[in-house]
Structures are given as C-alpha cells and as structure tokens.
Write a structure and sequence with these properties.
Blueprint lengths: L4 H17 L6 E3 L16 E2 L1 E2 L33 E8 L10 E6 L21 E5 L2 E5 L1 E5 L5 E5 L5 E6 L5 E7 L5 E5 L3 E8 L10 E5 L12 E4 L5 E7 L3 E8 L2 E10 L5 E4 L3 E10 L9 E6 L6 E4 L28 E3 L3 E4 L4 E7 L6 E2 L3 E2 L5 E9 L5 E10 L4 E2 L7 E6 L12 E2 L3 E7 L1 E9 L2 E10 L4 E8 L3 E8 L5 E8 L2 E2 L3 E3 L12 E2 L4 E4 L5 E6 L2 E7 L4 E2 L3 E5 L4 E7 L1 E2 L1
Parallel strand pairs: 1-12, 2-11, 4-12, 13-19, 20-28, 29-36, 37-47
Antiparallel strand pairs: 1-3, 4-9, 5-8, 5-10, 6-7, 10-11, 13-16, 14-15, 14-17, 17-18, 20-23, 20-24, 21-22, 21-25, 25-26, 25-27, 29-30, 29-33, 31-34, 32-33, 34-35, 37-43, 38-39, 38-42, 38-44, 40-41, 40-43, 44-46, 45-48
Length: 587
C-alpha cells in the first residue's frame, strides 16, 4: 500500500489542477444561429440572434482584459461598480475586430424576447424602474444603457436577474441577446448592413450639401432599426444611408432651401442614385379671423402658372419657441414676438420654383374661402409671408346633437359607435364636403342655414330622427332620445350551397341595420358594423344577427335573380330578438 501512496497523491494533485486551470465554458456568444441546447431566442428585424453554445469567447476589458467598457458608464450612474454586472464585448462579425461606440441597451428579461426592436429604444436614458412598452402591455421593467470602449467591451451594474440586450451602431444591423445572466460574459457580433448611396444635385447639376436623407420601409412594415435610417449629403452632394436590411425603401430628401423629393421602393444596395431637387419658394401664412377664433382644419391649395392641377396641404400651427434653459415657457400672448389676438401663424409651405407665379386658396371650416392674387415665384427660390383675412361665412351655421336614453342618461356618440345621416327637409341638395365632428355629441360646424333632418343610428338603440332648423351664422342645439333596439336573427336553408342576398324593408324604406359578427369570427369581440341596405350570408350557416332596428313590421326580401327568397314578414319588438328561418332555392 505504501508503494502506491506517492502515485495516489500525484493523481489527486493532477485532478485539482485540472479543475482550477480548465477553460471557462459559460461565455455566451451572439452569432447567426441558436444552439439547439441553449435557450430559445427571438429574431428581430435587422438583428442577429444569440448563440449560447459553450466556448471561452473573448474576455471583456471590464473584467480585467483592458480598459474601456466600465469607463463608458455615465458619470451620474447611481449603481456602484461593485456587485453583479452585465458584461461583454462587441465584435465585427466579418473581421472579428472590436466595435467601439456601440450602444448596448439592457432591460429585464422578458418572454418572448422582443421579436421587433423599436427605434426609440436607443433613446432611453440611464434611469431604472421606468415603465417600458412591451407589445400592447405596459409593465415596469429595469433598464440601462452603456457604450462600448476602445476594445469593444462594456459593463453595466445589474442586480435584477437575467437581462435582454439590444446592441447597435450606425452602419451595422441590430443584434439582440436574451436572458443573459449577470457576470456571464457575452460576445455580441454585429453584421454590416446594406447601403443606399447616391448624389443630390440641383436642376443644373450643382451638388447640394446638407440634404437630410431618410429611409423608411413601405407602408405596412414596422419602423425598426435597419428599416429606419438616415444620412446627410456632404459638400459634393454625396450621401450614403447605411445599416439597412436587404429590402426596398422609400426615401425622402429634405432641405430648407429646396422642395422635398421622394423616391419609392429603392432597393438596398443601390449605389448610384441621382436625385434632382428643385429650389423651393417658402410661404408662411398668417391667418386673421374676424371673430378672433382659431380656424378649424385650415387648408391651402396652391397652383403654379401653367403647372397643371394644384396640390392641397393642411396648414399646421407653428410651434412655440422653446424656453431658455431653466425658465418656464410663457403663454403665447405674453411672448415678445407673439402675433396680435385673432392672428394665427402656421408652418411654412414649400412650393417648387420654376414657374413665374403661384396662386393660393385658403379654406377653413365655417369661413369664406380666401384666394390670393398671383404671387411672383423667383426661379432661384425664396421666401415670403402672406397675410390671410378670413371672414365667417354668413350663410353657414353650426349644429350640435347630444344623445341620451329614455331615462335622460347622457350617451356618447363615439362611445356607442353611432353613425349619422342627414338631408334637407325642403328637398334641396346637400352640398358636397359637409364636415362632421364625432365627439361625445356629434357636431356639424359648417351647415348652410335651413331645415335639416338627422338620423342617428347606434348598435344598441333604435334609430332616432332629429329635425333642426339650422340658424345661419349661429349655433343650433338638438337632442336625440334613444330607445332600446330590436334584433333579428335570419337563417337560410337550402339543399345545396347558396349565397343569399337580401334586405329588410319597412313600409317604403329600406332598413340600414348593424350586423353582429358570429362567435369565433375574426373581430367577433368588436362592435357591430353598419352593413348598409343589402346583406349577404350563406345558406346553412349560423345566420346573421341584425341589430340597431326600430320596433315594427319588416319584410325580408331577396335580391338578385340567382336565388329565390320568399318574401317573409316579421314583427320586431323593442328590446327583443326575433329568430326567422327561411328555405331558399336556386332559380
């Protein structure tokens, strides 16, 4: 036994050395794939996904491998450098070189790890325990932000459990890492994004410096990093929008002295885009109303001499100047350069130069239109201010209809998902462009004076008719008293699949009910929809439930020559549902 004692001691010493000196295997590496053995991670548009396969990785400077990561923490960070930290390093995926100045946003881990990354995530400050939007839910989650140092390393004090990381730098695609444990170093690899490059010039070919170029996705796609990027043209008019996903983009080109230009569906990777921007004639509008009230929904239509159809734009109020640091904003009327009472200034409108003159028409609800004289447009562009006097149209009045039930309890027009139709009781045509403002009450701010009839329809109530004599140049109030609706469930039967079209007729009028969606259908939890005068359903189905009807006798009539629907009378009772089953045949 004594002969084996030295050998046993050597074996024990070797085992201890192996345990002490073996490489660490808890370093997480963010790459292009997810290890089947690791936690699930969700890919975000423009983001690489974490590969949590074991490996030594690179030791961050903040962990003793150099300087950089910890130095990038904000000076006012309240957390101490001692204690648990989120640590790691960011590398260029193609070259393996460290990426300096990458922004690392850290939040408490969530499930699922976000599949999209909103652009504003990188605007977060260093505060913690701040409500963060998560899908359609808002829940308090810890968060912090740090930048990588010279060697690509980062470290952030973190003692709130697993963390999700979102990393980006201009020109690279966003990367995410999910459920990262404190003090477990993670290596994040950033991939270069695609580029759209080109030049911006004047009609004569001169370069334009300082043009803001913004790339956005086509309508319907989320605006996430990699899909919303920007650049500015240099002294030679050249620009390069980098860090893009391999998709198509809508580009907008803006400059204070030039008319905005747009390019639709430009493919990422385009390198020789040539954009011509025309000099802009910038017009500021100062609207003065005779009753000193702010105009509602003002618009301006401009037309260039010999330039074909004009264009219409909304006028937006000019924002108030920002107050000096440490001071409170003054009310508009107390500001030194405030316009006089009844005068309202709007953001400048750009008109392309190149035509000799332009004409402007300003309209606002309830006011007479104002038309300018031809305004000279310098070929090189320029700026001017137009003073626009607006006078109330003496032929127009304002009508407002409030809603209540039989017990005189107020009802909300918007809350009840109501609709309204209107017509003249004297048979005169309804002018085009009648404006309706749906609010707690429904308002018509500019109706020609005279006798009007309004029919208010709501899913839970029977239709109500309100007759008003609208006063020109005045306000007229009305009240719609709503009673409970009658409901009708219609089901058709046939010996073969048939599509049945029908309508409800009450006397000489065709009813316009709301249709309730069947259980299990898309949007079944939403409010009933106004379906108009014609309804369609398939024979053999559950049938349609029609609501928003008044009590009384109706006739169900078929529409079209394909299906024979026997006219079927039905008596509806207020507050009750009537079931009707009808057998139909092919003609």
């Amino acid at each position: 036994m004594r002969r084996f004692a030295p050998l046993l001691a050597l074996l024990l010493l070797g085992g201890a050395a192996f345990l002490l000196l073996r490489p660490r295997d808890d370093a997480a590496v963010v790459g292009d794939a997810v290890d089947d053995a690791g936690p699930a991670a969700t890919r975000a548009p423009g983001a690489v996904t974490p590969n949590l396969a074991s490996g030594p990785g690179r030791r961050p400077a903040a962990m003793g491998g150099g300087t950089g990561g910890a130095d990038e923490l904000p000076a006012d960070a309240s957390a101490s450098a001692e204690g648990p930290r989120v640590v790691g390093v960011v590398l260029d995926d193609a070259t393996g070189e460290p990426v300096k100045g990458a922004v690392v946003v850290v939040t408490s881990a969530s499930k699922p790890c976000p599949s999209t990354v909103p652009a504003e995530v990188f605007e977060w400050g260093y505060a913690v325990a701040t409500p963060v939007r998560d899908g359609d839910r808002s829940a308090p989650r810890e968060r912090g932000k740090v930048s990588t140092g010279e060697d690509g390393a980062f470290a952030l004090p973190w003692d709130t459990g697993p963390a999700d990381l979102v990393v980006r730098k201009a020109g690279w695609l966003v990367a995410t890492a999910c459920a990262v444990a404190a003090d477990a170093p993670v290596t994040v690899r950033l991939r270069k994004g695609a580029t759209i490059a080109g030049v911006v010039v004047t009609p004569t070919g001169a370069p334009i410096a300082g043009v803001e170029v913004t790339a956005r996705p086509p309508r319907g796609l989320p605006e996430t990093p990699g899909r919303v990027e920007a650049a500015t043209s240099d002294a030679e008019g050249r620009f390069a929008v980098e860090g893009l996903l391999p998709e198509a983009f809508d580009l907008l080109f803006r400059h204070a002295a030039y008319f905005d230009e747009a390019k639709a569906e430009v493919a990422a990777g385009t390198r020789a885009l040539r954009v011509v921007m025309r000099p802009a004639f910038v017009v500021t509008f100062r609207l003065t109303t005779d009753d000193r009230t702010r105009p509602e929904s003002p618009t301006v239509e401009w037309r260039l001499a010999g330039g074909g159809p004009g264009e219409i734009a909304m006028l937006r109020p000019e924002p108030a100047p920002a107050p000096a640091p440490g001071t409170a904003a003054l009310p508009p009327e107390m500001q030194a350069d405030a316009p006089p009472a009844g005068t309202f200034v709007y953001e400048p409108l750009k008109v392309p130069a190149g035509r000799p003159t332009a004409t402007f028409v300003v309209k606002a609800i309830g006011f007479e239109p104002w038309t300018s004289e031809p305004v000279e447009v310098p070929p090189e562009g320029g700026a001017t201010t137009l003073d626009v006097p607006l006078r109330r149209d003496p032929t127009l009045g304002r009508a407002r209809i409030a809603l209540e039930d039989r017990e005189h309890r107020p009802l909300s027009f918007v809350g009840e998902q109501c609709t309204v139709s209107l017509g003249r009781r004297d048979g005169k045509p309804v002018p085009a462009g009648v404006v309706m403002l749906p609010r707690e009450a429904v308002e018509f701010p500019a109706l020609v004076g005279g006798p009007w009839r309004f029919v208010v329809r709501c899913p839970r109530f029977a239709p109500a008719t309100v007759d008003l004599d609208v006063r020109a140049a005045g306000d007229t109030e009305g009240l719609a008293v709503l009673s409970p609706a009658a409901r009708l469930k219609v089901r058709f039967f046939a010996t073969e699949p048939l599509l049945v079209k029908f309508r409800l007729v009450a006397g000489d009028e065709i009813a316009r009910p709301f249709v309730e969606k069947p259980a299990g259908a898309a949007g079944a939890d939403g409010p009933p929809e106004e379906a108009g005068e014609e309804q369609t359903t398939a024979a053999g189905q559950e049938g349609l439930v029609l609501t928003g009807l008044a009590a009384g006798r109706y006739t169900i009539e078929g529409i079209g020559p394909e299906v024979a629907v026997p006219p079927t009378p039905v008596d509806l009772v207020e507050g009750e549902t009537k079931d009707v089953e009808i057998t139909v045949t092919r003609r």
